[in-house]
Structure formats: structure tokens, C-alpha cells
Write a structure and sequence with these properties.
With 225 residues, this protein is an all-alpha fold. It folds into 2 domains: 3-84; 113-223, no CATH class. It has 9 helices and no strands. The chain has helices at 3-17, 28-44, 49-60, 67-112, 118-137, 148-157, 163-183, 189-206, 215-223. Helix 2 packs antiparallel against helix 3 (49-60), helix 4 (67-112) packs antiparallel against helix 8 and helix 6 (148-157) runs antiparallel to helix 7 (163-183). The relative contact order is 0.09. The model has no long low-confidence stretch (mean pLDDT 87).
Length: 225
């Protein structure tokens, strides 16, 4: 079971315990529900087996486990879940940005190979930009084609930070990449240098920051996917 499912289950158990104040063993159904949560928690969060084992054991001990104690344990589990989710999110973001950095490195290698490879510079930078936007906007990577330009336009229009860097990425990367693909444009050395610099700055700016969206902006972006 993943963290989100465990979180939903824990919240249901917390709700089920409600204002019950007696020992859990006075209500076999509530004791069973709590024990089941502990079993699932142990499988999902094995690093916290001592907490889970103690809670499970106390239900059946002579002095028993009171409902207020059980609620406290469930709240603690919910707090652990939040920490684990934040850690997972950070790890996932690191992987995305590692991939974006790889594309930046590939762009640099293409640049070093000379003028004939300049178009490949922009192809790699365009891919890096798409990866970053998908990650920061919560767009599944399985959606292979997104209108990156339109998404940036929405973010810039609503001044969603770092909109200035995003606007520069559109001008220096996307617009030139489109000219290469659709107009046969041959990018210059300075085009490549500027585009790589823009992407370096954008990746650095977004690595440890979130793009904060209102529901209205999020809906506009998702409607265009």
C-alpha cells in the first residue's frame, strides 16, 4: 500500500474512533480496525516497526490501550506520512532535475561539436524545459506532448514566479527551436550560448522552489493539455 492510501485509511480510523473514550478492547470492532491499521502501517512504513508493534501489543495487554491513546498514535502516523511524502517528493524532484541537467549537458556537448549540431542544442534544452514544467506543475510524464509555450504564456500573464525566467526561456529556447523546426532557421553561436545560460538560471531558480498556482490558473493550464 502506498502512502496516500495509508493516509486515507488512518484518517478513516481516526474518524471511526471519534469521541470513543473507553479502552479499545471494550469494543472489539474498534480494536480490530486499529490493529488492522497497525498491520498496514508496518508494511508501508517498516522503519517504524517499534512504534507499530508496541501499539498493537498494548491493545491486548492487561491495562489495555485507551481510545485517546490510539488517536494520538494515529495522529503520529499521519505526521510520519507527511514527512515521508515530502521526502518522496524531494527525491522525485531531484531525479527530474538530474534528467534536466543531463539534457543541459547534452546540449553543451552538441554545442562543442560545432555549428552543424547547434539545432540539437535546442532540442535538448526544449526537452529539459518540458521536464521541469511537468514536474513543477504536477503534469504526468506519461502525457508526452504539452504546449510548453502556452503554459509559459499563462504563467507569465498571471506573474507566477519565476515568470521573468520562464519568459526568457520561451524567447531564447522555445521560439528559436520552433524557427529551427518550422522555418529551417540555422541558430548562431550566440543563440546557443544565450539559450544554455537561460536554462542554467531557470533550473537553478526552480530546483528548491515550488510554482504556486491558484485553482483558476491550474485549470487554465490543465484545460490546454
Amino acid at each position: 500500500m502506498d502512502l496516500e492510501k495509508l493516509e486515507k485509511m488512518a484518517k478513516l480510523v481516526l474518524k471511526d474512533l471519534g469521541s470513543f473514550s473507553d479502552r479499545l478492547d471494550a469494543n472489539p470492532e474498534k480494536a480490530s480496525i486499529f490493529k488492522n491499521l497497525m498491520t498496514v502501517t508496518l508494511k508501508t512504513l517498516p522503519d517504524h516497526k517499534e512504534l507499530v508493534a508496541n501499539a498493537y501489543r498494548e491493545v491486548d495487554e492487561t491495562y489495555g490501550l485507551y481510545a485517546y491513546q490510539a488517536r494520538s498514535i494515529v495522529r503520529h502516523i499521519l505526521a510520519i506520512i507527511e514527512i515521508e511524502k515530502a521526502s518522496e517528493s524531494k527525491t522525485r524532484a531531484m531525479k527530474i532535475f538530474d534528467s534536466a541537467n543531463d539534457k543541459l549537458k547534452q546540449a553543451n556537448l552538441s554545442f562543442q561539436k560545432g555549428e552543424a549540431n547547434y539545432p540539437t542544442v535546442f532540442h535538448n534544452l526544449n526537452t529539459a524545459l518540458e521536464l521541469i514544467l511537468k514536474d513543477k506543475l504536477g503534469i504526468p510524464t506519461t502525457i508526452t506532448k504539452i504546449n510548453t509555450s502556452t503554459i509559459i504564456d499563462i504563467l507569465v500573464k498571471h506573474k507566477v514566479k519565476p515568470y521573468l525566467y520562464l519568459d526568457e526561456a520561451k524567447k531564447k529556447v522555445l521560439m528559436i527551436d520552433n524557427k529551427i523546426k518550422h522555418q529551417g532557421y540555422s541558430p548562431s553561436k550566440i543563440d546557443c550560448i544565450n539559450s544554455m545560460k537561460v536554462m542554467e538560471e531557470l533550473i537553478s531558480k526552480l530546483r528548491d522552489k515550488e510554482i504556486k498556482l491558484t485553482r483558476e490558473i491550474r485549470d487554465k493550464i490543465y484545460q490546454g493539455l
